[in-house]
From TrEMBL, chain A:
GO biological process: signal transduction
Polar residues composition bias: residue spans: 30-41
Organism: Oryzias sinensis (Chinese medaka)
Biased composition (Basic residues): 19-29
Protein's name according to its UniProt entry: Serine/threonine protein phosphatase 2A regulatory subunit
Location of region: Disordered: 1-51, 464-514
Alphabetized GO MF terms: protein phosphatase activator activity
Similarity comment: family membership: Belongs to the phosphatase 2A regulatory subunit B56 family.
GO cellular component terms attached to this protein's record: cytosol; nucleus; protein phosphatase type 2A complex
UniProt biased composition (Low complexity): 473-486
Gene3D superfamilies from the UniProt entry: Leucine-rich Repeat Variant
Highest taxon of source: Eukaryota
Automatic annotation (TrEMBL), chain B:
GO molecular function: protein phosphatase regulator activity
Residue ranges of every copy of the Phosphatase PP2A regulatory subunit A/Splicing factor 3B subunit 1-like HEAT repeat domain listed in the record: 266-347
Residue ranges constituting the Phosphatase 2A Regulatory Subunit A helical domain according to the UniProt record: 79-260
The HEAT repeat ranges on this chain: 79-117, 156-194, 195-233, 234-272, 273-310, 316-354, 355-393, 394-432, 472-510, 511-549, 550-577
Name of the protein in its database record: Protein phosphatase 2, regulatory subunit A, beta b
InterPro entries, A to Z: 2AA_helical (IPR055231), ARM-like (IPR011989), ARM-type_fold (IPR016024), HEAT (IPR000357), HEAT_type_2 (IPR021133), PP2A/SF3B1-like_HEAT (IPR054573), PP2A_Regulatory_Subunit_A (IPR051023)
Family: Belongs to the phosphatase 2A regulatory subunit A family.
One Pfam family hit: PPP2R1A-like_HEAT
Keywords from the UniProt entry: Repeat
This protein's GO CC annotations: cytosol; nucleus; protein phosphatase type 2A complex
C-alpha cells in the first residue's frame, strides 16, 4: 500500500514504466494471500477412505480425521508444488460438504471444536496488501484469492454446517463467539467478490441463529462503517454489510431503540459522504427507506441530514441522492412531508436548474411520479413559489433542449394545479429578479467595505506611509487644478467616506451584541 | 442556503472586526469588558452560523490563536466551551484541529485555571457518550498532566487507562497513538506500573490497526526505561510484533526499525534485532520487504562498531543478495536507493568483492527506477573505491544501456548523464563518455537528438565555456557539412541551446559564421531554422554583428521563395528591431 509512493519518479524517467507496471500487475493478478506464512513445511497428505464406504460406527472417527487433514494449508502462489496433496484436500473438502449437508446426526457435540478449528484455520487470515494501491472497484479487476479452490469449499462447508437441521447454537456459541465474528467481519474487506458473497450469507445466518451475538455484530458493523467514513475511506465490503443490515432493520421491533436511531443518523447518513458511494448506494438507500417505513417520524431528521451532506460538486452523486429522495417520498406520510417540504424543495429547485443535464433531468422526473404529484398539489401554495423562479429561468436559459421540454411540461402541470398563484408569480417574476439583483449588489458592497476595514486594521506604520504620499498628492492637485487629477482625488476620497459609513453602522450595532 | 444566511452572518463579523480594531486596549477594567464582548462574539459565531465542516475547521484553527483577543491568558478559558464542542464533531479534521488548538491554549492557562477549567473539560470529553469526544480526550492528557496536583494526576491516569480498553477501536487507536507521548510526561514509577501494562494490552489488541500503533509507542517507551528493564518489559512485545500475523504490524516494525534500534541499544540489537531484521527482509509480503530494504543502510550504520562488519557480512548481506533479484520492483528499488551506502561501511575490499556484483546486477535491472537509484548514488561508491575501479566495473553497464535498442532506455540514460558527469569529473568524462554524448546527436530518433542537445547544454553549464570550445563546439559545427539535412539541423539546434552557455565570444566568432553560411542550404527546413536560430542567438550577439552580419542575411531570407522561410525570417527581423 505504502510502497506506491516511490512510483511516480519512475514514470517521469521512462515511458516504459507504466506498461511494465501494468504488465507486472497482470502477471500478479488473482494472487494474494498471506496465510501461507503460518506453516513452515506442508505435510504430504495421504488419501483416507471415503466416508460413505465406512460403517456408520466408524464414520465419526473418520470425519474427525478428515477435518484434521483439511487443516493443512497449501501455497497456491506456487502452482506446481504439492499438486497431489492439494487435490486430496479438495476432494476431502467436497466430501465433508456433502457429509454435513446430506447426513443426519453427524453434528454431535464433540465434533464442534474440530469443525470450527478447521474453518478458522482455513479462512481467518490477515488479508494481503492490495496489489493496486489506487484500486478502483468500478474500473479495476479485483485481486482474487489465490487459494479459492480450497477456500470456497471451506465456506460452503461452514454454510452447510450452519444450515444443518441438527445444528445447535447453544453448543456452537462456545466456538462461534465474539472473536469469531470479529475475524469474520474483517474478512469483508476482501477484494474477492466471491468471498464477500459467501461471507454475507454466512454472517446473516449467524445473526439469525445466535441471539446473543446480535448486538455485538451490529456494534462491530457500526465501528467498521465509522472507520470507513472518518478514517480509512476504504473497505471493500460496505455493500454486503449494508445488504445484511437491510434485512436486519426489517426485523427491528417498534418502537425503535435509541441505538438504532443513532445508527441511522450517525452512521447511515454520514455514509452518504463517502467518495465511493456509487458502490453501495442502492443498499444504503434501501436501509434508509426501511427505517422510514418502520418509523415515519424519522423522515424529518433523515431528509435534513441528507440535505446537509448533499453533494456540492459531484453530479453523479447528486443523481443518486435524488434517486434516494424519490424512494423516500414514495413512502412518506403527507404530515411528515409538510415538515420538510420547504428545505427539500429549495434543494430540488437548485437541482432542476443544475447545468448538468442528468441532475436536472433526474429532479424533473419527480413530476412523473403520481404520489409525489399529489403531495405537491396538496401543498402547491408553499412549493410553487420555491420552484417557480428556477423553472421559469431554465425554461428560457438551459442549454439542453430535453431539459427545456421537460420544464415546460412541469410548468404546465404546476399551472394547472393553481392557476391564480401561477399568474401572480409570473407577473411579479421580473420585479423579484430585480430585487434579488439589488440585494446581491448591496451584499457585494458590504463585503467590499469590510475588506477596507481589514486594510485599516493593518499595522499602523503601514497606514502612515500610505497616508503621507496621498496628502502630498492632494496638495499637488490643488496647485495644478487639473481636471484629471480632480477625478483621481475624488476616487481616493470615496473609500474614506464609505469607511465612515461602516464605522457608524458598527457602532450602532455594538450595544446589541452585548 | 448559505446565500440566504449571508446577510445575517455579516452582522457578527462586522462587530468582530470592530472589536479587532480596538486591539490596543490596555486598561484592566476595559480589558475585562472587552473579553466579555469577545466571549459573546465567539458564542454568536459558534451558535448562529454554520455547521459546514470547512467553516468549523477554520474556526477550530483560529480559536487557538485567540488568547490575546479575549484579553490574554487570564481569560483564555472562555475559549474552552466552543473548542470543546468542536472537539466532539464527527469530521476528523475538525476534531483534530480543535484538539490542536486546545493543546496550544492549555499552555496559556495558569496552573489554577488548568485545574478549574481545563482539566474538567478533559474529563468530560474522556467520559463522553459518543466515540468522538473520547478520541479527542486522548490527545489532551499529556498537555495538562505535568501541571496539575497529584490527585488530579491520578484521575488523569485512570481516565487514560479506561480509554486504552475502550470498546470502540477508534478510541483505542487514539489512545495507542498517544501512548508514547503520555509515557514521556509520566513519572518513571508510573511508566513501569501503568504504561507497560497498557502497552502490552494494546500491542496484543484484536485489531491490527491498534497493534501497529503500539509499535510506534514502543520507541518512546524503550527510551524511557533503564536498559536492564527493557529485556523483561518491552522485548517480549516487540518480538511478538515483528512476527505478527498481520503484515501491517510487521510493516510498521520495519518502518520504525532504526528508531527501535536506537531505543533498545546495541546489546539487544545484536541478540534480537539482527535476526528480526533478517526475517523482515525475507518477509512474505513485498510491502514489508520494501520497508525493511529501505532501512538496510541505516540499520548497518547503527550497529555497534566492534563487530559491525562481521554482522553485516554473515547476517545481512546474504539477505540483501536475495533482495537484488526480488520479484517485486518496489522492493528492488527501495534496496537500490540505499545499497550504495553500504560501501562506506564495509570499505574498499569488501565493496569490490561483495557489493560491486550487486550494484552491477541492479544496474542491469529491468525496472528503470532501480537503475536510476543506483546511478544517482554512484558518488558514495566513488569515494570508497575510486573512480578507476568504478569505471572499470560499472561503465560497461552504463555504455551498454546507452546503446540500448529501445529509445526510451537511451533517453533515460541521457537524462542521467549530467549527473554522472558531475560525479565523475571532466577528465573521466572526456575519456569515456564524450563520444557517447556526441553519438546521440545523430541518433535516428528525434527525441534522442533533442535530449542530446539539451544534455550538451547542461554539460557546458557544468564544465564551462572553455571546455565546450575545445571538445564540443568543433564537433557540432562539423556536422553542418553533413550530407543528411537532419544532422545539419541538429547543428542549429545545438547552437540554439549552447549559445547562451558559451557566451558572446564563442557564439560570434565560431557559431555565427556557420549559421550564416547555412542560410544558403538547399533544403528549406534548414533555411528557416537558420532564421529561427538567428532570432534565438540574437540576444547573445553584440549590436555590431547584428547589424552588419545578421540583418543582411535575414533580409535575404525574407525574400526566399519558400513561404515558411519568409515567415520565420520576417518574424526574426521584427523581433530584433
Amino acid at each position: 500500500m505504502r510502497c506506491s509512493s516511490s512510483k511516480p519518479t519512475s514514470e517521469k524517467v521512462d515511458g516504459f514504466t507504466r506498461k511494465s507496471v501494468r504488465k507486472a500487475q497482470r502477471q500478479r493478478k488473482s494472487q494474494g494471500s498471506s496465510q501461507y506464512r503460518t506453516q513452515s513445511a506442508p505435510v504430504e497428505l495421504s488419501p483416507l477412505p471415503q466416508l460413505k464406504d465406512t460403517p456408520s460406527a466408524e464414520q465419526q472417527e473418520l470425519f474427525m480425521q478428515k477435518l484434521n487433514q483439511c487443516c493443512v494449508l497449501f501455497d497456491f502462489l506456487d502452482s506446481v508444488t504439492d499438486l497431489k496433496s492439494k487435490e486430496i484436500k479438495r476432494a476431502t473438502l467436497n466430501e465433508l460438504v456433502e457429509y454435513v449437508s446430506t447426513y443426519r446426526g453427524v453434528l454431535v457435540e464433540s465434533a464442534y471444536p474440530d469443525i470450527t478449528n478447521m474453518i478458522c484455520t482455513n479462512i481467518f487470515r490477515a488479508l494481503p496488501p492490495s496489489d493496486n494501491p489506487d484500486f478502483d472497484p468500478e474500473e479495476d479487476e479485483p485481486t482474487l484469492e489465490v487459494s479459492w479452490p480450497h477456500m470456497q469449499l471451506v465456506y460452503e462447508f461452514l454454510l452447510r454446517f450452519l444450515e444443518n437441521p441438527d445444528f445447535q447454537p447453544s453448543i456452537a456459541k462456545r466456538h462461534i463467539d465474539q472473536k469469531f465474528v470479529l475475524q469474520l467481519l474483517e474478512l469483508f474487506d476482501s477484494e474477492d467478490p466471491r468471498e464477500r458473497d459467501f461471507l454475507k450469507t454466512i454472517l446473516h445466518r449467524i445473526y439469525g441463529k445466535f441471539l446473543g451475538l446480535r448486538a455485538f455484530i451490529r456494534k462491530q458493523i457500526n465501528n467498521i462503517f465509522l472507520q470507513f467514513i472518518y478514517e480509512t475511506e476504504h473497505f471493500n465490503g460496505v455493500a454486503e454489510l449494508l445488504e445484511i443490515l437491510g434485512s436486519i432493520i426489517n426485523g427491528f421491533a417498534l418502537p425503535l431503540k435509541a441505538e438504532h436511531k443513532q445508527f441511522l443518523m450517525k452512521v447511515l447518513i454520514p455514509l452518504h459522504t463517502a467518495k465511493s458511494l456509487a458502490l453501495f448506494h442502492a443498499q444504503l438507500a434501501y436501509c434508509v427507506v426501511q427505517f422510514l417505513e418502520k418509523d415515519p417520524t424519522l423522515t424529518e431528521p433523515v431528509i435534513r441530514g441528507l440535505l446537509k451532506v448533499w453533494p456540492k460538486t459531484c453530479s453523479q452523486k447528486e443523481v443518486m441522492f435524488l434517486g434516494e429522495i424519490e424512494e423516500i417520498l414514495d413512502v412518506v406520510e403527507p404530515t411528515q412531508f409538510k415538515k420538510v417540504q420547504e428545505p427539500l424543495f429549495k434543494q430540488i429547485s437548485k437541482c432542476v436548474a443544475n447545468a448538468h443535464f442528468q441532475v436536472a433531468e433526474r429532479a424533473l422526473y419527480f413530476w412523473n411520479n403520481d404520489y409525489i404529484l399529489s403531495l405537491i398539489e396538496e401543498n402547491i401554495d408553499k412549493i410553487l413559489p420555491i420552484m417557480f423562479g428556477s423553472l421559469y429561468r431554465i425554461s428560457k436559459e438551459h442549454w439542453n433542449p430535453t431539459i427545456v421540454a421537460l420544464v415546460y411540461n412541469v410548468l404546465k402541470t404546476l399551472m394547472e394545479m393553481n392557476c391564480t398563484l401561477f399568474d401572480e408569480l409570473t407577473s411579479s417574476y421580473k420585479a423579484e429578479r430585480q430585487r434579488e439583483k439589488k440585494k446581491e449588489q448591496e451584499r457585494d458592497e458590504l463585503w467590499k467595505k469590510l475588506d477596507q476595514f481589514k486594510l485599516g486594521n493593518a499595522p499602523l506604520v503601514q497606514n502612515n506611509s500610505h497616508s503621507i504620499p496621498s496628502v502630498q498628492n492632494n496638495n499637488n492637485n490643488n496647485n495644478n487644478n487639473n481636471s484629471n487629477n480632480n477625478e483621481s482625488q475624488e476616487a481616493t476620497s470615496t473609500p474614506s467616506d464609505k469607511d465612515l459609513a461602516v464605522t457608524v453602522e458598527v457602532e450602532d450595532s455594538t450595544p446589541c451584541a452585548k | 442556503m448559505a446565500g440566504a444566511d449571508g446577510d445575517d452572518s455579516l452582522y457578527p463579523i462586522a462587530v468582530l472586526i470592530d472589536e479587532l480594531r480596538n486591539e490596543d486596549v490596555q486598561n484592566d477594567t476595559e480589558t475585562q469588558l472587552y473579553s466579555l464582548k469577545m466571549y459573546s462574539i465567539i458564542h454568536i459565531f459558534y451558535n448562529t452560523i454554520y455547521d459546514e465542516d470547512e467553516v468549523l475547521l477554520a474556526l477550530a484553527e483560529q480559536l487557538g490563536n485567540f488568547t490575546m483577543l479575549v484579553g490574554g491568558p487570564e481569560y483564555v478559558h472562555c475559549l474552552l466551551p466552543p473548542l470543546e464542542s468542536l472537539a466532539t464533531v464527527e469530521e476528523t479534521v475538525v476534531r483534530d484541529k480543535a484538539v490542536e488548538s486546545l493543546r496550544k491554549i492549555s499552555q496559556e492557562h495558569s496552573p489554577v485555571d488548568l485545574e478549574v477549567h481545563f482539566e474538567p473539560l478533559v474529563k468530560r470529553l474522556a467520559s463522553g457518550d459518543w466515540f468522538t469526544s473520547r478520541t479527542s480526550a486522548c490527545g489532551l492528557f499529556s498537555v495538562c498532566y505535568p501541571r496539575v496536583s497529584s490527585t488530579v494526576k491520578a484521575e488523569i491516569r485512570q481516565h487514560f487507562r479506561t480509554l486504552c480498553s475502550d470498546d470502540t477501536p477508534m478510541v483505542r487507536r487514539a489512545a495507542a497513538s498517544k501512548l508514547g507521548e503520555f509515557a514521556k510526561v509520566l513519572e518513571p514509577e508510573y511508566v513501569k506500573s501503568d504504561i507497560i501494562s497498557l502497552f502490552t494490552a494494546l500491542a496484543s489488541d484484536e485489531q491490527d490497526s491498534v497493534r501497529l500503533l503500539a509499535v510506534e509507542a514502543c520507541v518512546s517507551i524503550a527510551t524511557l526505561l533503564p536498559q536492564e528493564d527493557l529485556e523483561t518489559l518491552v522485548m517480549p512485545t516487540l518480538r511478538q510484533a515483528a512476527e505478527d500475523k498481520s503484515w501491517r504490524v510487521r510493516y510498521m516494525v520495519a518502518d520504525k526499525f532504526s528508531e527501535l534500534q536506537k531505543a533498545v541499544g546495541s546489546e539487544i540489537t545484536k541478540n534480537d534485532l539482527v535476526p528480526a531484521f533478517q526475517n523482515l527482509l525475507k518477509d512474505c509480503e513485498a510491502e514489508v520487504r520494501a520497508a525493511a530494504a529501505n532501512k538496510v543502510k541505516e540499520f548497518c550504520e547503527n550497529l555497534p562498531e566492534d563487530n559491525r562488519e562481521q554482522i553485516i557480512m554473515t547476517h545481512i548481506l546474504p539477505c540483501v543478495k536475495e533482495l537484488v533479484s526480488d520479484t517485486n520492483q518496489h522492493v528492488k528499488s527501495a534496496l537500490a536507493s540505499v545499497i550504495m551506502g553500504l560501501s562506506t561501511i564495509l570499505g574498499k575490499d569488501n565493496t569490490i568483492e561483495h557489493l560491486l556484483p550487486l550494484f552491477l546486477a541492479q544496474l542491469k535491472d529491468e525496472c528503470p527506477e532501480v537503475r536510476l537509484n543506483i546511478i544517482s548514488n554512484l558518488d558514495c561508491v566513488n569515494e570508497v573505491i575510486g573512480i578507476r575501479q568504478l569505471s572499470q566495473s560499472l561503465l560497461p553497464a552504463i555504455v551498454e544501456l546507452a546503446e540500448d535498442a529501445k529509445w526510451r532506455v537511451r533517453l533515460a540514460i541521457i537524462e542521467y548523464m549530467p549527473l554522472l558527469a558531475g560525479q565523475l569529473g571532466v577528465e573521466f568524462f572526456d575519456e569515456k563518455l564524450n563520444t557517447l554524448c556526441m553519438a546521440w546527436l545523430i541518433d535516428h530518433v528525434y527525441a534522442i537528438r533533442e535530449a542530446a542537445t539539451c544534455n550538451l547544454m547542461k554539460l557546458v553549464e557544468k564544465f564551462g565555456a572553455e571546455w565546450a570550445q575545445n571538445t564540443i563546439v568543433p564537433k557540432v559545427l562539423g556536422m553542418a557539412n553533413d550530407p543528411n539535412y537532419l544532422h545539419r539541423m541538429t547543428t542549429l539546434f545545438c547552437i540554439n541551446a549552447l549559445s547562451e552557455a558559451c557566451g558572446q565570444e564563442i557564439t560570434t566568432k565560431q557559431m555565427l559564421p556557420v549559421v550564416l553560411k547555412m542560410s544558403n542550404d538547399q533544403v528549406a527546413n534548414v533555411r528557416f531554422n537558420v532564421a529561427k536560430s538567428l532570432q534565438k542567438i540574437g540576444p547573445v550577439l553584440d549590436s555590431n554583428a547584428l547589424q552588419t552580419e545578421v540583418k543582411p542575411v535575414l533580409e535575404k531570407l525574407a525574400t526566399d521563395s519558400d513561404m515558411d522561410v519568409k515567415y520565420f525570417a520576417q518574424e526574426a527581423i521584427t523581433l530584433q528591431s
